[in-house]
Specification:
Layout lengths: L1 H16 L4 H21 L6 H12 L5 H10 L3 H17 L4 H8 L1 H12 L23 H17 L5 H24 L5 H20 L1 H8 L2
Length: 225
């Protein structure tokens, strides 16, 4: 009887809390609206004057040793991201199984990215306008690197960092933000993307990540007290 009562208490507390975390859902929807606006603008022209100005400004900076990291970040694409996502999913299944579905939601962002890339079909920045370090196959919009790192880093910290000291968690979140910044700069510096592609990747990745966290059935294992 005590076990059944505790189960009822758990379900009752979830019901009283609601199915979603409204603040996270609201921020997710705002990011999605901003992403939709960016997408609409991108569909109107190949690139914008601000795109070109920011891209040239990024390439004019002497990034020193950071430029080497840009190459490493550029290398981490395609099947490497798929392998990392699969490994992350496996680790969560083995070590924190209750968070498996949240991680699975993050993996689905790859399908959304692929679909959007095929629908928009924005060409990558041409060599006639900027210095092209390397071009991969595929299209420019949105930045798949930013979509991937947005959810992957955040979910790993939330899943595995819950019991770490507060200072360590703060450091991990700082490193996560620095990684996103480095990825954003690297995608423009190597001329793989226009800045509006990078912005779209951040907005889509952020919206996707926050939406998953807003659904209590997915995020309670990592966010519930």
């Amino acid at each position: 009887m005590m076990a059944s009562a505790s189960v009822r208490d758990i379900h009752g507390s979830r019901a009283s809390a609601g199915l979603v975390r409204w603040p996270l859902l609201a921020i997710s929807l705002l990011a999605a609206i901003a992403f939709a606006a960016d997408t609409y603008l991108v569909l109107t022209r190949p690139y914008f004057p601000l795109d070109l100005a920011l891209a040239r400004a990024a390439q004019a900076v002497n990034w020193g040793p950071l430029a080497q990291s840009f190459g490493a970040l550029d290398w981490f694409e395609g099947w490497k991201q798929v392998a990392a996502a699969g490994l992350g999913l496996l680790l969560v299944y083995l070590l924190r199984r209750r968070a498996f579905w949240l991680m699975g939601w993050g993996v689905l962002s790859g399908a959304a990215y692929q679909l959007l890339e095929l629908v928009v079909q924005r060409p990558r920045p041409p060599a006639g306008l900027v210095h092209v370090v390397r071009h991969t196959t595929g299209y420019s919009f949105p930045s798949g690197h930013l979509v991937f790192f947005s959810w992957f880093g955040a979910y790993l910290i939330l899943v595995f960092g819950g019991r770490l000291p507060r200072a360590v968690k703060a450091l991990l979140w700082l490193l996560y933000l620095l990684l996103l910044a480095a990825v954003a700069v690297s995608r423009v510096y190597t001329a793989e993307h226009w800045p509006t592609d990078v912005l779209a990747g951040l907005l889509l990745g952020g919206a996707w990540t926050l939406f998953g966290l807003s659904i209590r059935g997915l995020s309670d294992p990592v966010l519930a007290a």
